[in-house]
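Q: Here's a chain of 347 amino acids. Please give me its 3D structure as tokens.
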Amino acid sequence: MTAYIVDVAREAGVSVATVSRVLANTDYPVKEETRQRVLAAAERLKYQPNRLGRSLRVGHSSAVGVCATTFNNPTWVATLEGIMLACRAVNRQVQTVTTFSDPAEEQIYMDLFLQERVAGVISYSAGAPLDAYEQIQRAGAPVVVVNRPVPGLRAPLIEHDFPGGFASALRYLADRGHRRIGAVLPYRSAYWGGHEANWNGAFERLGIEPMPHLVRHIDATLQTDVIHCVVSELLALPEPPTAIYTAGAMSTLVAMRLIQFADDAAVRDIELVGTGDRRWEFLYPPSLPFVCLDSYGLGTVAAGMLNDLIDGKGDMYQDSVTRVAVSFVDATSRAEALPSGRRGLPD
């Protein structure tokens, strides 16, 4: 198995920067004991330095670093496609890493991007410290964050219009007479806590009392077994909701199956409004009302912003927020939009 510089750093218990300095034999002061530990780790792992990366450190490379939390989410796959094609159009390569929602891993990769002198970074943050990003900015590389802001970081934020999606879903369900409306929302954090406030605010604007006890949160890993437990808990309440909004593609798929195959007739009658990506819409049953995210467009906008900043167009420290519009389609409009071969197919 190929070893990378981050593997050597973990094996030796040091930072990526320290490994880079030792292996490049720079004049930067490193304790002899640390140097020997790094060399021993590199030998054990049979690490071969990246010559291209090392040659690029004399200045910024043409590559863009992209940091994701997971690749098991179809919306992120579409986002990455948008980023890669937008960067390819201006002859920039993309280096993609995933943190599996681990802030420590994210910090390691930010350090790696710094050492590789990438031209810029797009990140879907898992919670790495502010300084990990500010070091990249101080080196002259702009940062664009996607959907999850890094507290204190002065950098552009590109995000889906989740508040608009919440409002559309609730309005649809309220118009159909529902008041006991539950939700499966992303995990609690400073950022997603703001989303929960938006969820409650949508209730208040419709004159409906929010029901926090009918809201559940999924963790950052998006593992289907975890989502299964969370949704099952909501459906098993003595008085379950009459309708549920799921704010992600994975939670929509899980909830759809649990409701469809429930033993309890009351659970099978629960109305579901899902969320997912525009590119995957036709994979869902035509009867499912849907909040459509344009994740490909999100990636395109993020990459366009970063490319402009790399080219000196705009302020890399701008504290701006750009929201990419979402759309809501009900069962009728979805059925009309389907290719003729899928109309009338059973759910």
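Q: Can you summarize the key feature?
A: The chain is about 45% helix and 15% strand.
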